[in-house]
Write a structure and sequence with these properties.
By secondary structure, the protein is mainly alpha-helical. It has helices at 20-27, 39-50, 60-67, 74-82, 91-102, 105-116, 126-139, 147-157, 160-169, 179-196, 211-253. The protein folds into two domains: 20-103, no CATH class; 113-253, no CATH class. Residues 66-159 form the Retrotransposon gag domain.
Length: 255
């Protein structure tokens, strides 16, 4: 009696072969159903592996359905065996069943709370804080916040000196920027922070330098980089506009 829950439609040809190297690679990246494991990351990694192989006459959907069981171990493997026979026929159904079981409501609530209560940690650089915030968003795709709300939450949670940098680059009020403009400013500030202060080097302080003067110097350096990045963004847009005008003029000559 066939009790296998996974039954995708058979491919047009039955002489296909799934390469042993692909099966071995999938097995090296197993998901065991432990609390510390990330089901969304597992799906993403698995699909990336599957994108490296193909077989004539066999759909990618079928290959994923056949390969995914090799990526499951321990609790996850037992979960798969507990599903009703022939209950899954497509990769989308398979993926949805896996995520619904292992991405629990409690996990979703926990990550959503991390997003809504986001605060930059002591001694955490700006770019590290941004990476952490992005990781929360990625780990909870159904968080319910629109993009504008997300960047407002991030802005409220960062250190005061970084708020000041963003406000200054926004002519006084970062909150008046559009989502796209806000993202450009944030990414520019993160790039500046990463390039200039990767380890928050305190050795450059002298005994005669006050903490306030050091922070002001640091702030000025960051602002220069942010404004420089913003100027590059504006110049790129203007360059595209100039190119479009040149095309229009050339088009007019040949009419």
């Amino acid at each position: 009696m066939d009790r296998n829950p996974i039954h995708p439609p058979l491919p047009a040809r039955n002489d296909y072969e799934i390469k042993p190297q692909i099966i071995a690679l999938v097995r090296q990246n197993q998901f065991n159903g432990l609390p510390a494991e990330h089901p969304l990351d597992h799906i993403e990694n698995f699909e990336e592996i599957c994108s490296t192989t193909r077989s004539n006459g066999v759909s990618a959907d079928y290959l994923k359905c056949k390969l995914f069981s090799f990526s499951l171990g321990d609790k996850a493997s037992r979960w798969l065996k507990s599903l009703p026979a022939h209950s899954i026929t497509t990769w989308d159904e398979y993926k949805a069943a896996f995520i619904n079981h292992f991405y629990t409501k409690q996990r979703s609530i926990s990550v959503r709370n991390k997003i809504s209560n986001f605060r930059q940690a002591n001694n955490e650089s700006f770019y590290e804080a941004l990476d952490r915030f992005k990781e929360y968003i990625r780990d909870c795709p159904n968080h319910g916040f629109n993009e504008g709300n997300l960047w407002n939450i991030f802005y409220r949670g960062i250190d005061h000196k970084y708020k000041l940098s963003l406000d200054t680059a926004s002519n006084g009020n970062f909150m008046t920027k559009t989502v796209d403009e806000a993202k450009v400013l944030i990414e520019n500030l993160a790039a500046s922070d990463c390039n200039n202060c990767p380890d928050y080097d305190r050795s450059s302080r002298t005994t005669t330098s006050s903490p306030d003067s050091f922070q002001m110097t640091e702030l000025k350096n960051m602002m220069a980089q942010v404004l420089k990045g913003q100027l590059k963004h504006i110049n790129a847009i203007e360059g595209m506009s100039d190119a479009n005008e040149d095309i229009k003029r050339m088009h007019g000559r040949f009419l």
